[in-house]
Amino acid sequence: MNRSMNLMFLLVVFVLGGCGTAPVPAPAPPAPPAGVEEGDYAVVQTFFATDRNLEEGRLGEVGFGGERSDIRYGRCYVSIPRDHRMGELESPSILRLEFRQDPVKHVVLLETELQARDRFFSAIREEVEASSGKKAFVFVHGYNVSFEDAARRSAQMAYDLGFDGAPVFYSWPSRGKPQAYVVDGQNAEWSEANLARFLSAFFQESEAEKVYLIAHSMGSRILSRALISAMQDDPAIGERVEEVIFAAPDIDAQVFAEDIMPRIVSRVSPVTLYASSNDLALAASRQVHGGYSRAGDTAKGVVVLDGLETIDASYVETGFNGHSYFADNRSILSDMFYLIGTGARASHRFGLTEVDAEDQVYWQFKR
Q1: CATH label of the domain that carries residue 293
Q2: pLDDT in tens, 227-259
Q3: HSE-up of residue 362 (Cα within 13 Å, Cβ side)
Q4: Is 30 helix (H, G, I), strand (E, B) or coil?
């Protein structure tokens, strides 16, 4: 490998590294600091299923690594600061001389509790039954994400969306390292069968009548294939999927359009796709994959299909690499809030403008 190729590889790894959340400089406290009342922050409960390996976490509590394992179940408790800003995943900052996580200031994974399978689904049924519409969402994270950050992100989304139902995340064995893109891709493929089995069980046992499936980045590969498999085994699943949301999917655009979407929208429609031309992580992924466009990257064209509502977020302000906008941008969270909360389609949601694309349309956020 010559010098220019080395530099290109390092650049791609650097940009793709932004797919996960920023690393936290210090461990989280296992309990609120002395003198802090729980009223100083909200605590969000989120359920999880994971096929990561079990390992001892900080101070002996439950933790999960980046290796493959059998599926385990449980719930997490995550703090949300009272002065939380919508879209923020507040973390310690060295610039602010913050050297440890504080639930009063930061989104912190406070506790992880393992549950037997039966107890897990029983607890979800209780949460679903207590909701107004018997709702649940299942979130599948992307590349370079640890179990801890998956828990924090799912809790932040549930809080910011004001979600009334059972929030659930599926955490596959991402290594949580920028340089592990290829390994993460292999583990994502390996997890497809496990997620398909989990989805089948979830629809059988959760009693949720309206289920929202949300996937980000590489997680879209897993969710799309797993959902297709689960619906092949039980076509009735599609009747209870209220919405499928693919956010910045790191999937070959042609495969997404010609293979994946036709098999999903035949049973679930419409499906929502958030994409952007300013997503540097997907631009890097395009280079890694021989120049073939990704479904979440509109730089070389927008994926527009029957049964798919494509939302172009190119005009939305984003962070460092423009890849996590689905959960850290107020405009997009607000759009998802109305999509999930009211079921309003793109043509009836404030802040979107229609764009003609030959015989079809897609939508953009207004400038």
Answers
A1: 3.40.50.1820
A2: 999 999 999 999 999 999 999 999 999 999 999
A3: 22
A4: coil
Q: Which residues pair with 216 in a beta bridge?
A: 247
Do the beta carbons of residue 114 and residue 47 sit within 8 Å? no
Q: What is the C-alpha to C-alpha distance for residues 141 and 138, in angstroms, rounded to an integer? A: 10
Number of domains in the chain: 1
What is the predicted pLDDT for the residue at 347? 95
Q: How far apart are CA 108 and CA 103, in angstroms?
A: 6
Q: Tokens 């999903």, residue?
A: 264
Place 5 in a pLDDT band, splitting at 50, 70 and 90: very low
CA distance 92 to 22: 10
Q: Which amino acid is at 310?
A: T
d(CA 21, CA 220): 17
Q: Is the pLDDT of residue 294 over 90?
A: yes
From CA 303, how far away is CA 311, in angstroms rounded?
A: 10
Specify whether the CB–CB gap between 293 and 277 falls below 8 A: no
pLDDT, mean of residues 184-206 = 98
- Residue 219 CB coordination number (10 Å): 30
Task: Tell me which residue of 123, 128, 112, 230 sits closest to 171, measured CA to CA.
Answer: 112
Using CA atoms, how far residue 342 sits from 161, 163, 309, 334, 339, in Å, is 12, 12, 16, 12, 6
CB 292 within 8 A of CB 286: yes
- Give the domain range for residue 298: 3-365
* CA–CA distances in Å: residue 144 to residues 12, 18, 22, 235: 13, 8, 10, 33
